[in-house]
Specification:
With 752 residues, the protein is of the alpha+beta class. The chain is built from 27 helices and 18 strands. Helix 5 (120-131) packs parallel to helix 20. The longest helix has 27 residues, at 395-421. The chain is globular.
Length: 752
């Protein structure tokens, strides 16, 4: 009986994500809005194509003059579940993985609640509330957040085993717990969202401290802290193959010195959205095209359902009636909830500004509202505790329950009447209050009339109510369409019949993205979504194999970000000259008569590779930019090299041609000149690139601030630019050996 009940709770919890995403998957539709189209599908389609041709996708030559791909943390190319993308394709596979991760999150929450001793119905409510929470569902299309957040309850489950285990437990059991937590950390770190992983690590450390002290006083804390450190070290070893190149990329990126305060504090939680705990669509919903609140809908989405919220509040108000262990857990969760919520307010309080200035890591991430992952997690656990204490009220409690139920029904019904009498009320207020009133009314009826001793009736009634509430709240927040949007050629690829890069000015890119296609007020702005590819919005050009000077990525090389700012500061004539010698042939301009108001103008013939007669030394990148801005030459007569060598060799003109090949980590060029010449390649200079002339390693220079150059002697030569990421091979060996060792040791520890 107990086994059947336990499996039923898991099945009912898993049902929620399937209700939301099952129809989409059964109809063969795919996620397209936001990051799937602009990042994840292009990245993964390209990476899979490279792998099929027998190469490793270390480098992405198609975006931003070239940038690391495997080191790009959010691409998560090494995340094990992403193997599914190779089987069903990235476009369909992302929707399937999103649904599976929400199921995984809910099951993890059920198991954690079970470990914490919560009643079966509490496990059910907490599992559904977390997996279908506004935080997870409203941003499910943000693939890396979805994947990383799903590991949170599993990590806390393992951390609780680590901290709450008896000090006299066998060494084999202790090592099993340490290895298990380390593996779970590693899998979350490989999922590709550093912010979520960091918040999880902070919360895990707090949980271990609290649980250790609660379990065996401060004596236990030292042992548990050491075990947590071991788990983190093991996780670093297991994920080194990803973290080592990513850390190098971070040091080379625009985020190395921290984010600008205004950018970092963007998407601070809007305090008015706290009302979203009872009325998630009070300020509208982009799924229905009615959102009018501050910022966007998804960053401030925190809805966990009316019944779970009531149970969480009940858990807090009944704090001093609880048993010692349950009371301690409630106090910890309430404290963590308060801290996380205050952090989420970001610029709306002095707290986060202080932390940004003086506490490391707070200046590395955007969107403080994402601290609410922990708020939602704590609320779901509090709801699980509260459901365990849920009884039919008596005495004064019965009076207030009846009054509240009747009042909720009246509020729901009166919302429509009030809307007719008060014409200036926002249209979104009416359905939001009506929905909240109806749900409070149903919750009251369940409290008053449901027999709490009939376990199966309670479980199925709560499952039906909470699932219906959260599934309807989350419906439409992840738009899906036909897979054809990612298939075939775009109009842009058919127009560009000559080699060369495309470039879209930053202002035009943001205007198309945020005012036409990816508006915050609606998911359906009335456009054919293939147009996003037709106009070449970054990074959709990767789907057509088009080289673009743009790159929509949270990480870009710092030099690239600065170069882009510099280009945008130039006048039109200077900009055209710079773009031309940078290998840009097609320049996007505003044109209301064209698709989405964008047309591409062909520049005078340019090239990705040039043979340049002369090079002059420069002491810094800033000096190079000053000299380039003052330069009036319309052709590549000379370049600037950042070097201490003076003078640099000079020669004559020559010819160079790129020989196409499928390996993105190698650029082969056939070059010839009379008297020697500088070969200038308008691809990003980045650590790990080296150059060989006729197979001989030759000095590679950083040229014209961002790009690469090499001196090529007189005559005909084969020049190979080769990208070998620093530290990847030893990191791969360390991770491979680490995974093998962990699996063997964990298996042995479990058998002991």
């Amino acid at each position: 009986m107990k086994l059947r009940r336990d499996w039923s709770i898991l099945a009912l919890t898993a049902l929620g994500p399937l209700l939301l995403f099952g129809p989409m998957l059964l109809l063969g539709k795919v996620l397209y809005w936001g990051t799937p189209m602009l990042q994840f599908v292009p990245w993964h389609e390209y990476a899979l194509d490279v792998v099929r041709q027998g190469h490793i996708p270390f480098w992405n030559p198609l975006s931003g003059f070239g940038a690391p791909l495997l080191a790009n943390y959010q691409s998560a190319l090494l995340y094990p579940p992403n193997i599914l993308l190779a089987i069903v394709g990235p476009a369909y596979g992302h929707g399937l993985l999103v649904a599976l991760h929400l199921v995984f999150a809910g099951i993890g929450m059920v198991l954690l609640c079970r470990r914490l001793g919560m009643a079966p119905r509490g496990q059910l409510v907490a599992g559904i509330a977390f997996s279908l929470s506004g935080y997870l569902v409203a941003r499910a299309w943000f693939i890396s957040i979805n994947h990383a957040a799903a590991w949170l309850p599993w990590i806390i489950f393992a951390a609780d085993r680590l901290a709450a285990g008896s000090s006299a437990r066998p060494p084999a059991r202790r090592w099993s717990d340490v290895l298990g937590l380390g593996a779970l950390f590693a899998l979350q770190w490989l999922a590709g969202h550093a912010q979520t992983s960091w918040y999880t690590l902070v919360f895990t450390a707090a949980w271990v401290v609290w649980r250790s002290v609660q379990q065996d006083g401060w004596r236990r804390l030292l042992s548990s802290g050491f075990d947590l450190f071991l788990s983190g070290s093991i996780a670093f070893v297991l994920s080194a193959i990803q973290l080592v190149p990513t850390l190098e990329y971070l040091l080379q990126s625009q985020r190395a010195a921290g984010l600008d305060p205004e950018f970092a504090l963007t998407y601070s939680f809007w305090p008015w959205r706290l009302v979203g705990l009872i009325a998630p669509d009070l300020f509208g919903n982009p799924a229905s095209g009615t959102y009018w609140g501050y910022g966007n809908y998804w960053e401030d989405a925190i809805y966990i359902g009316i019944f779970p919220l009531l149970m969480a509040i009940g858990s807090l108000t009944g704090l001093f009636r609880k048993r010692n262990q349950e009371r301690d857990l409630t106090i910890f969760l309430a404290s963590a909830l308060a801290v996380a919520f205050i952090f989420s307010l970001g610029k709306n309080t002095f707290v986060f500004r202080f932390l940004y200035e003086f506490i490391p890591t707070f200046n590395l991430f955007q969107a403080p509202a994402r601290w609410n992952l922990l708020s939602v997690f704590c609320l779901a656990l509090l709801a699980g505790i509260g459901v365990g204490d849920w009884v039919t009220p008596e005495g004064r409690g019965l009076y207030w329950a009846r009054l509240g139920t009747a009042g909720a029904g009246i509020v729901g019904a009166a919302s429509y009447v009030g809307a007719r009498l008060l014409g200036d009320v926002q249209a979104t207020f009416v359905p939001a209050f009506a929905r909240a009133g109806l749900l409070f009314f149903i919750a009251g009826l369940l409290t008053l009339f449901l027999n709490k001793r009939d376990h199966w009736r309670v479980i199925f009634s709560l499952a039906a109510f909470v699932l219906l509430d959260l599934a309807t709240a989350g419906y439409g927040l992840n738009p899906a369409g036909d897979p054809e949007v990612f298939q075939g050629q775009s109009q842009l690829s058919q127009m560009i019949d000559r080699p060369g890069r495309v470039y879209m000015p930053v202002e035009l890119e943001e205007q198309i993205k945020f005012e036409q296609t990816h508006r915050f007020d609606t998911f359906n702005p009335g456009v054919d979504w293939r147009m996003v590819r037709d106009v070449g919005l970054p990074n959709t050009t990767m789907l057509d194999g088009i080289y673009s000077a743009n790159n929509f990525d949270p990480f870009t090389p710092d030099r690239y970000a600065r170069w882009l700012e510099w280009v945008e500061s130039l006048d039109s004539n200077q900009k055209e000259r710079v773009l031309r010698w940078s290998g840009v042939r097609w320049h996007a301009v505003g044109d209301e008569s064209e698709i989405l108001g964008v047309a591409y103008r062909e520049l005078a013939p340019g090239a990705r590779v040039w043979m340049v007669p002369e090079a002059f030394p420069a002491g810094s990148g800033e000096e190079v930019l000053r000299k380039l801005a003052a330069r009036s030459a319309d052709v590549m007569e000379f370049i600037y090299i950042e070097t201490v060598s003076d003078p640099l060799p000079g020669g004559g003109r020559g010819e160079a041609e790129i020989i196409p090949q499928p390996n993105p980590n190698r650029i082969r060029i056939s070059a010839s000149s009379d008297g020697g010449s500088w070969l200038f390649l308008s691809d990003t200079w980045y650590p790990g690139w080296e150059v060989l002339v006729d197979g001989e390693l030759t000095e590679l220079y950083r040229a014209n601030y961002l790009f690469m150059a090499v001196w090529v002697p007189e005559g005909e030569h084969a020049v190979d630019f080769v990208y070998r990421p620093t530290g990847v091979v030893p990191a791969a060996a360390i991770s491979g050996i680490g995974w093998l060792a962990v699996i063997l040791l964990w298996g042995r520890a479990r058998r002991s």
